[in-house]
Amino acid sequence: MLPIDTLEHTEPGESPAAGLVFQRCLWCGMPAYRRSFCRACGSVAFRRERSAGDGIVLRRHGHVPHNTWFVAMNEGFNLLCRATGTVPVTVGSRVSVVEAASALGQELPTVAATRPPSAAERWW
């Protein structure tokens, strides 16, 4: 079994999104976020990569006061996160990671809308 590095650090001067780290399966290349095994092939061998931190909102999760959303990140994995900011987040909104969750904590990453969805990007 490969050793697991659980410490993730953001260097001074880096953007908060630089702290969002995801996993990529060494066998099939499937991206994942905080998984113990690959959903596609069952492998437990992952390499860690930094995410660009951009994605699109898929759907709301839970009640409105919690403001949690599922986001499809550009790298190919889905992320459950909290939304913040002055621009309202809706399904189809483009978002960027504002604050990544700590490696050992249970909190969710925080995203903010970069732009609302255009009429062509709305799928409801």
Automatic annotation (TrEMBL):
Record-given protein name: DUF35 domain-containing protein
